[in-house]
Design brief:
Number of strands: 0
Radius of gyration: 21 Å
Strand content: under 5%
Order of helices and strands: HHHHHHHHHHHHHHHHHH
Helix content: over 70%
């Protein structure tokens, strides 16, 4: 009986750090005006609280396949908890913005280890008839965070102050540590390989510079171009290096599978749209309907909660119906939601937006676990850890790109900011059509 509970417990323990990272990220967004006054800094400077976390997280995830081969799952878990806990303690006592950023960087290390570890544990240990359910459970742990974060941050900041955002995380992390030490087991022998330092540096540079470039897209075209060129230079260096490397830090051979690449592209677009809508909808509610940021967050909460609660259900459908029908249905629901927002843009109100976002979140919960699970199944077992690393890395990259590109479309609209939101929705609609074509093509190919 104990054994039957260990795998869900291991998923919970490893998922808590990803959950905590996103909860803190979305909760801290509420505190930015207060922190700007406290530390006497600009909005551009305070944004590094989020940017530093994302950059470190993106740099760590490509290491996951190497770490999996070289260290036991329990050692990786304890290390990730230690880094995350240290970061939380630093932030809870941070006397300046620099210390606050340093703490978020340590949390990025912890999450960068634990997030791929969670999915690797599921892929290795899940029974075939429950793989979808458990992948859905893994996604559920992290999917609840965006719904909880704004409410968590708003309530704590108004009552006990922003430092409680970090302090109240400590007991949860300690519970995760105890549960993980009991439940996480090593089911496969280790195969240590030589650490490809230059491969890691170039891979991390490509994704980090790309995310940094997108962060400047709406504010400085020159900086966007400079960082994009640097990213392309490192991409060329990385590809040249990997052609000669015998033990690459991340095996890009998984991209030779067209079916896997199409699934990865679909996952990227899905995450891009989700984060794009998460930018569009709250800002539209505040600017067009003159609601507060907290009210805008509350309008998003029903959709986020429904999406999170339905994520395991999406996994159950995957187990019983296969991937094709839940995934196609889920993307179609997202397309329908964005189409409704676009067609009836001039007749929207907060209630209608809230209800339509529930449709979009439902579509996401049905499609995303199936895309990832079925995509990884297109690879041989020896490449699945590398494929998992690519999925998790592209997830972070898509989030940064979605927010940056959609916000740029809004700002650049020549017919006014409100119409800019409409243009952003139309752009999201177009790439969802691309998403449907990509995933339909992938399902037409043999496994």
């Amino acid at each position: 009986m104990k054994q039957s509970y260990k795998l869900p417990a291991a998923i919970f323990a490893t998922g808590i750090l990803s959950f905590g990272g996103v909860v803190i990220e979305t909760a801290m967004n509420i505190t930015f005006p207060q922190l700007m006054k406290l530390f006497n800094v600009s909005l551009a400077q305070i944004q590094w609280v989020t940017t530093a976390y994302l950059l470190v997280l993106t740099a760590m995830i490509p290491l996951s396949a190497f770490l999996k081969r070289s260290f036991s799952a329990k050692k990786l878990f304890v290390t990730s908890v230690g880094c995350f806990l240290l970061g939380v303690i630093i932030d809870a006592a941070a006397p300046s913005l620099s210390w606050l950023i340093l703490g978020r960087a340590f949390q990025g290390i912890g999450t960068g280890i634990s997030l791929p570890l969670m999915f690797n544990i599921i892929l290795e240990q899940a029974p075939a008839n429950k793989l979808g359910l458990l992948m859905g459970l893994g996604n559920f742990v992290t999917a609840t965070a965006p719904a909880i974060g704004p409410i968590y941050g708003g309530v704590l900041t108004d009552t006990w102050g922003w430092r409680m955002i970090f302090i109240l995380m400590v007991p949860l992390i300690l519970v995760a540590l105890l549960v993980g030490c009991w439940s996480i087991e090593q089911h496969h022998p280790l195969h240590p390989t030589k650490f490809d330092l230059w491969g890691w540096i170039t891979t991390a540079a490509v994704f980090s510079l790309s995310i940094t470039a997108f962060s400047f897209l709406s504010t400085s075209l020159l900086k966007f171009i400079i960082y994009s060129i640097l990213a392309l230079i490192f991409l060329a260096i990385m590809l040249f290096h990997y052609q000669k490397s015998t033990a690459p830090i991340l095996n890009w051979n998984s991209l030779k599978s067209l079916s896997f690449s199409l699934h990865l592209s679909s996952y990227f677009i899905g995450q891009f749209v989700v984060l794009g809508l998460s930018f569009l909808i709250p800002n539209l509610i505040q600017l067009a309907f003159h609601q507060s940021s907290f009210q805008a967050g509350m309008a998003m909460a029903p959709g986020a909660l429904v999406g999170a609660l339905l994520t395991p259900f999406g996994g159950i459908l995957l187990d019983h119906l296969g991937a094709k029908r839940p995934v196609i249905c889920g993307i179609s629901l997202q397309f329908t939601a964005v189409l409704l927002l676009s067609l009836f843009f001039n007749h929207l109100n907060v209630l209608i937006i809230t209800l339509i976002f529930v449709i979009a979140a439902t579509g996401q919960s049905l499609s995303m676990p199936g895309i990832m699970t079925h995509g990884l199944q297109q690879l041989p077992v020896k490449l699945q850890a590398d494929g998992n690393a690519l999925f998790n890395t592209f997830q972070q990259f898509a989030g940064a790109a979605g927010t940056a590109i959609i916000s740029t479309i809004v700002v650049a609209s020549s017919s006014g900011q409100i119409n800019g939101f409409h243009h952003g929705l139309i752009f999201a609609l177009i790439i969802l059509v691309v998403d449907l074509i990509a995933i339909w093509t992938a399902f037409q190919r043999k496994n």
